[in-house]
Amino acid sequence: MPMVTVSISPQQAAGIRAAVDNGGYASSSEVVREALRLWDTARKLNEFRDDILDDDAASGGRCVADMFADHEAERRRSA
Fold first, then answer.
1. C-beta separation of 28 from 17 below 8 A
2. Pairwise pLDDT comparison (3 vs 79), residue with the higher score
3. pLDDT digits (tens, 9 = 90+) for 53-70
4. Cβ of 31: how many Cβ atoms within 10 Å?
5. Cβ contacts of 47 within 8 Å, gap of 6 or more
6. With contact defined as beta carbons under 8 Å apart, do 32 and 16 qualify?
7. 41-47: Cβ within 8 A, 24+ apart
8. What's the Rg (C-alpha) of the chain?
9. C-alpha 12 chain-centroid distance
10. pLDDT of residue 59
11. At 25, is the pLDDT very low, low, confident or very high (cuts 50, 70, 90)?
12. What is the rounded CA–CA span in Å between residue 24 and residue 22?
């Protein structure tokens, strides 16, 4: 797995240590990986929201689940 070095505040480091010490996570790496997954999900949701706002008039009454599926398919095609 690739290694990346980052700087975090003392408060963030303490929060990570507390999460591991309290048994919520097995390691600090696990905490950071979950944080990155949440960040990636938030980015995807923001992109989706922006697409919906841009295409609101063109949606034709389609359900959100269908629009999200279309968005994800388009994102995969352009990746």
1. yes
2. 3
3. 776 555 566 777 887 888
4. 19
5. 71, 75
6. yes
7. 44/75, 47/71, 47/75
8. 18
9. 19
10. 56
11. very high
12. 6
The string of DSSP letters for 10-37 reads HHHHHHHHHHHHTTS-S-HHHHHHHHHH
Question: Angle, to 10 degrees, between the axis of helix 64-78 and the axis of helix 28-55?
Answer: 110
> Quick check: 17 and 37 in contact, CB under 8 A?
no
Closest CA to 74 of 8, 13, 5, 54: 54
Whole-prediction pTM value?
Answer: 0.59
Average pLDDT, the chain: 87
Q: Rounded to whole angstroms, how far apart are CA atoms 43 and 10? A: 26
Amino acid type, 78: S
- Indicate whether 17 pLDDT > 90: yes
Residue 54, amino acid: D
